[in-house]
Fold these 4 entries.
Entry 1:
Amino acid sequence: SRGDCHTALNRMVAHGVQCGLHIFVSRDTDNELCRLCETKNYGSMNNVELSMMFTLEEALFLMAELGMLQIKGSDAMTPIGPDQFFESCCSEVPGFPQKYAAYRHFRRLGWIVRANALKFGADFLLYDGHVEEVHAQYAVVMAREDTRWQDMLAGSRLTQGVAKELLLVMFLHHGVSTKLPALG
């Protein structure tokens, strides 16, 4: 059953190290996380380093939601928890709480979310199937309160040119939380 699969996944924890805005995990062919990476559902393979590479959003989701990833702190020895990692991401990336909330929302709805969307003028691409089998259906842009309509129209024209629909995500509250969203 789906619950049994989720429990089994939680028992297989991979260990990662942060380098800039990515998390690197040693490639192990007998690791469930590696299988997820190979199917392009999460992360990407880094052939030079023989490792898997995850964005901060992917790493936090794998850590906090699936319990499949443990990240070492700055001393590369001590594991840090999801709350501490979330706070670290918030201090390194402007707008991270909103970006992670959007990533988490789409993942929980069943979309495959890829962050390598800059060439499409977007923050994320949403796939309704394996990345190598289907094209992204949506290009997600994280709009801010100061986003101009001209920018949105330009983004819409760009996404139409690459056969994707533009999906705008905007958070309308003014407070920014540095707490990890409640799980569940």
Entry 2:
Amino acid sequence: MFKKFDPSSDVSTSTQVKASVQRAIRSQIQQAHPALTNHILDELLPKKHPLVQYKVGPHLMLYCRHVEHDDDRSPTDEPMFFQQRDGPILPTLKLVHQYPSLELTSVTVDKGAIPFILGGASIMCPGLTKEGCSKMPPDGLEQDEQGFDKPGLEKGDGVVIYAEGKEHAIAVGTMTMSSAEIREKNKGIGIDVAHFIGDGLFQTNEIH
């Protein structure tokens, strides 16, 4: 998605996000990452600073924090989150690395998957099920209205991706099937990688 992203040519219109829309964005982020409290979200997305939305191509939105500088530089916009179509709102890796104590919804892949992910490839199910090397939230901790076990992760959930033996997240993406299906089938694509270390978005600190 951002493998060859260049903010000088790939972003088009920018608009300041209305307060009502910003509240909806905050709500979606908090729903996807329940451990994020209102206090934490206020730090990430301060209400006194406007959130700026950039359009990237026909179906992608990049949400940026407007930054005023103490020196003579003009204000800039710092990428914080992004969203493709009606998919989950995903954090940028720069945000994840800047706030390492955030308890974001995440998975861990085995180290054999690292070079493929850093090339932009999707994550295959076996990379998420290798005992002692990979990790996903457990299934069955909650039940649905019919009393059936709910998977730890649902299809369509956004996740931060860590790797075996690595301290910092290496990618973010979207579940293409639930964690229960991944454990049961153990084949096919489990996560669609949207953003990874070294891609164009990772190399973008600010947008002018």
Entry 3:
Amino acid sequence: TNMKKGIKCPSAVRDSRQIRNLAKYTTKDTKLILGVRHPIKFFESFYNYRVKHLHAEHKSTSHIPRAEDLIGDQSHSWNKLYTEVARFEMFMKQLAKVDVSAEELKEMKKLGLKMVPNPYKIFLYNVDQLGDKNEERSSQFRSDLQEFLGLKESIPPLPEHNVNHESFPEYLDVCDDEHKEFRELMMSQGNETARWIRDEFMKSLDVVVGGKDFFLELLETWGSEICQTE
């Protein structure tokens, strides 16, 4: 059969053990599709997902920390959420698609991360490209994905990524004035992440970028204010 099969696993690239197991139990024909997102939007979404989960399980929400309490590494973690989780480059380095310096390896080791050489080709995209209303860009993106996966039939328009219409009092709105310094920290961090993806990761021969022009355009916003301010 020519049917393509796949799994979705948000933590696959964050955990070197999962990358290692993937390399151990799959063939070199396996391909990875890796989605990234504006780090501030990612953090806000992850935070609110955790809040929603507490409500769904009818658990107490009195202990929910402020976003500012989660600045730093996993020692500041709340349910595996902390600001350095949004430093995507730290986890993407584990895929061993580009060279890293001794200093980078040292930093990775402190975070419990390891390089895991593997034969996989990677399709890189930004989740904001899903459901893109610009038909020309959307068509190019789907064409790039079709070619990467070796599909004979074209891919139909894709739905937007998860849209959550629920709301709880504890939800984080990063655009609130009280989070201005938090946003500034995340913008600085996001700018460095974007630089590494653009100048390092994307240059690997194993990495294919879907809708490259729009991807780069979105990447440029990672160091900029995303909230409307007066």
Entry 4:
Amino acid sequence: LHDLTYLDYSLVGKAESVAAREQYQDELLDVEEKEALQDEKMARETAAAKHTCELQEANLAVVETIFEEMFAEDTEMTKLKNLPGISDIINSFQSEVESASDVFLQAGMARRQQKSHETNLFEMAIKEMRLAYASESVALIEHFGHQKKHSVKHFASSREPSDIHKLLTLLSNLSHDLMDLEMRQVDQFEELMGEFEAKYSELKSSCLEAQQNFF
């Protein structure tokens, strides 16, 4: 009903609308109930799909399928199901698997969050570093621009060759300072990358150890 659109509201008066609702009240309630159930189903499916996507991104999708996959290729399972008490054993084992899976899932999601946190810190540090060096580079170039303007103006009136030599020296100094900035930026980047790789390697080892313990 919430998707129903009237093309001409003037054709339906308020009294007619009320009368129609009273006349078809049961049908309307039935439609509204079905729509509510459909909306609820879609919300559950959307939430489940989002949860599965998050598990896949964290390489934890196995927790949703591990129990079924254990028996997927077991041809003897259909025969064992007929044995007395086997259902209770399977249910008990399923509970143990689900409990272990939940512990593995919670720890895995925590490590995923930590990975994301470390990655964000690294990216932020790189961005701040680049902005700092870019600002310093711009300041050096602007300072040289002012010096060049003054030297050119002085040379226009004096025509002294020393003014040209002075300007060339300033340009050489600027080139040296910019190269020095670039080298310092490379060194700092390598230092940041080393720290990030060390922390990420620790997380990777922790993940591998958790997987080995779980499986």
